[in-house]
Design goal:
The chain is built from ten helices and 19 strands. By secondary structure, it is α+β, with helices and mostly antiparallel strands. It folds into two domains: 151 residues, Beta Barrel (OB fold (Dihydrolipoamide Acetyltransferase, E2P)), CATH 2.40.50; 217 residues, Chloramphenicol Acetyltransferase. It has a six-stranded mixed sheet with strand order 10-19-18-17-13-16, covered by helices on one side. Strand 4 and strand 5 form a beta hairpin. Helix 2 runs parallel beside helix 3, helix 7 crosses helix 8 and helix 9 packs across helix 10. One of its GO terms (cellular component) is cytoplasm.
């Protein structure tokens, strides 16, 4: 018999762990390829994991409620087949590609592996496929190996199946052939490469930090967590609660830190008279029974503004040699901040530039609903190129929002309040909204950012004229 072990796949966006919600199978059950076998909860959504193998479940490597790590054993299957003659032992392991990598790569495999059999790399919506038959002798696949490795050559190809691991090594100038794998039979895992990435700076800093080692121990002791109800060593106050950030809070914290660390941002803002916009929406609702949300109308103006100021609909990437690459996009994937019970998430409307205000309003409502239910998919929560944050729902006037990394800008909407406003030399009561734009100063200067913000503000002030030209 052949036992194959499936490693928890990378579920996208760099997530390294997921909570096992429930098994949909039990040990001893028969399982088919692509059959849903478990439901896991990431920091972003609930995801069903399909089986890449057909056979009988032999081992479930976790229990409901347990945190499962990417690239670690998830479940094992007795496929009932026989191993290849060149590798007669029993056990095998299989790593899975990330969703985004699978979408991009399809069935592509590295050149040295293109003659292997179907990988069994199965994610949601994907099946397996076998390579064309060839008269040449097959080599054991890098990620599906046997416990007793064949010694047919003295120089065996590096054992790594996940293209993300190869990419990570390449981007950090690490020779994948020099990485010592800690997986089954020397399989190179993501953690092996990351360990080498972290080792270089640590080694460089060691000679400097060594003399201060005794003093460095004090801060560690000072922040040692105290039991709930006990006294905090730094402040002397009783501890109400203390826990390591995890799940969505950890993801948000990391994203915010990365944004502040990587992006030199600046903020511009303007107060906007939206009295006519509110009246226009009321007229549409009276005439048609329903109307786009205010956010959808403003978003339509923002999308049009991005077509005039494309620098704000872009991204800065750091190349391997330290140079900066500026990428502009044809089209807009519009992200919007949505508050859920699990924290703040950013669903995005794909190809928002193709939608009118009514269609945008419908998509906002749909995506907000699935996000709050925890059912948003990876594509729903990744890939945005520009984000709008309506913090007015929290009854605040303004905010210098943190850019949704790696985007170049974020537009913020404050609450709409009645204020005295000068109109044609007279003071009148008008509905006013504060509009803010935080932008990456590397992609453009203040003039471009101000031009975009002014375009959106003018459209909000005179929506009939703006909509007529869209």
């Amino acid at each position: 018999m052949a036992i194959k072990t499936f490693l928890l796949p990378d579920l996208g966006e760099g997530l390294t762990e997921a909570e096992l919600v429930r098994w949909m199978i039990a040990e001893g059950d028969a399982v088919a390829i692509d059959q849903p076998i478990a439901e896991v909860e990431t920091a972003k959504s609930l995801v069903e994991i399909p089986s890449p193998f057909e056979g009988t479940v032999s081992t479930l490597h976790g229990e409901a409620g347990q945190m499962m790590l990417v690239d670690e054993p998830f479940f094992s299957v007795n496929t009932g087949g026989e191993d290849e003659p060149a590798a007669p032992a029993a056990e095998a392991s299989e790593g899975a590609l990330s969703y985004r990598e699978e979408e991009l790569a399809g069935t592509q495999v590295p050149a040295e592996e293109e003659e292997d059999e179907g990988s069994g790399n199965v994610l949601i919506g994907y099946g397996t496929s076998a390579a064309k038959k060839t008269s040449r002798r097959r080599r054991p696949r890098a990620g599906i190996t046997t416990a007793a490795a064949s010694s047919e050559t003295s120089t065996q190809a590096v054992r790594v199946i996940n293209p993300l691991v190869r990419k990570l090594a390449r981007e950090n100038n690490i020779d994948i052939h020099q990485v010592k794998g800690t997986g089954p039979d020397g399989l190179v895992l993501r953690g092996d490469v990351e360990a080498l990435i972290g080792a270089a700076p640590a080694a460089a800093a060691a000679p400097v930090a060594a003399p201060a080692a005794p003093a460095a121990a004090a801060p560690a002791a000072a922040v040692e967590p105290a039991a709930v109800g006990g006294a905090d060593k730094r402040t002397g106050l009783p501890v109400a609660s203390s826990q390591v950030l995890s799940g969505v809070r950890k993801t948000i914290a990391n994203a915010m830190s990365t944004s502040r660390r990587e992006i030199p941002e600046a903020t511009v803002w303007v107060d906007v008279d939206v009295t006519k916009l509110l009246k226009l929406r009321t007229k549409i609702k009276e005439a048609e029974g329903q109307a786009p949300s205010i956010m959808a109308l403003i978003s339509r103006f923002a999308v049009a503004g991005l077509q005039r100021f494309p620098e704000l609909n872009s991204r800065i990437d750091v190349e391997a040699d330290g140079s900066l690459r500026h990428t502009l996009f044809n089209g807009v994937n519009l992200g919007f901040a949505a508050q859920t019970d699990r924290g703040l998430v950013v669903p995005n409307v794909r190809d928002a530039h193709k939608l009118n205000a009514k269609e945008l309003s419908a998509e906002f409502a749909r995506l907000a609903s699935v996000a709050r239910e925890g059912k948003a998919g990876v594509t729903d929560l990744s890939g945005s190129t520009f984000t709008i944050n309506n913090y007015g729902v929290f009854n605040v006037d303004g905010s210098a929002a943190i850019i949704n990394y790696p985007e170049a800008a974020i537009l913020g909407l404050g609450r709409i309040v009645e204020k005295p406003w000068v109109v044609n030399g007279k003071i009148k009561v008008r509905s006013i909204c504060e509009l803010t734009l935080s932008f990456d100063h590397r992609v453009c200067d203040g003039g471009t950012a101000a031009g975009f913000l002014r375009y959106v503000a003018d459209a909000m002030t005179d929506p009939k004229s703006a909509l007529a030209s869209l």
